[in-house]
Amino acid sequence: MVMLGTPRWVWGSCIHIYVTGQTLQKIKPITDVAAVVLKRLDEEASSTPLAYGSVKVEALAEILGGQARTPHWIGKGWRDEPGAGEDPTDPASVARALSAGARQQVKVISWGAIIDVPKGLSLLCASDPELKTWFAGIREKLVETYMEELEKGSVVRFGEGGPEKVAVSGLKGWWVGHAASAGGDPHMHMHLLISATAETLDARRGQIDGKKLLNETAKLADGSARRVLAREMAKIGLGFGLDGEVVGVDPEVIERASTGRSSIKAIQTYFASHGIPVSDEQAWHHWRQICEGKADKGLPESLIQMIKLASWQEGNNLAAKQ
Predict the structure, then answer these.
(1) pTM (2 decimals)?
(2) With contact defined as beta carbons under 8 Å apart, do 195 and 171 qualify?
(3) What does the pLDDT average to over 212-225?
(4) Which CATH architecture has domain 14-235?
(5) What is the C-alpha to C-alpha distance for residues 36 and 95, in angstroms, rounded to an integer?
């Protein structure tokens, strides 16, 4: 048990903060907000039937449960707008709120983003209820930091070809937190849905510049959120190592718990053996298809079954070590 008042891990001035680059693109355009919101709400963290650290199968569901259905509105863009009274737990309501004012000829009505934390921190939170409570208390700060950075850097383009760039007065969005990955292993993360339209400082409304959002603003927002996480971790004696992971957590356990990472490697290895290069993003898509029970004609059945069983096998292996 980690006592937050008297940290077990105290590194003092030796704390290393190393912000690693993201393997996958963490922000994407969305055309069907209602479907995405419904999917995020249905991904119940309490469905994770694994055991990590000193936690057994029965206890883990209770420790991880309850975080998936705590959605919130975020951003300054709700000011004086009709969508502020919508219900954040209702997919249709969220869709109305985030697509309000969108130009009909523009298909992208929202942007979806993910804020991740190191796998080692997810494992610590899964094995220690007190740490899980601590993280629940800082999630909103991480989300607000991310959103504030997006608001500072986002612009709307006007004119033929979009030569005129005007800063937004604020963005509006919705977020929900999860404690497990699609593969079922502990993975603390937050999903954000951000409206693709915004009001500018000169009171005009338009589509935010998606190219700038993808290539610049989202990366700055991700870095800011990670720096806030590092500061909050330092307060309880936790720090990042040079590999971007939490100091003191066994790398072997981290690797065993990273079912998505190992599955993506297996998928890329299979395609490489057939002379087909596959990016992390493409391999991740195949993995998600398998996790969601959808047909994946690009992979052999033997590999699909191996990936489906991976999380259960690793969970059993770790449990057997206790």
Answers:
(1) 0.76
(2) yes
(3) 90
(4) 2-Layer Sandwich (3.30)
(5) 9
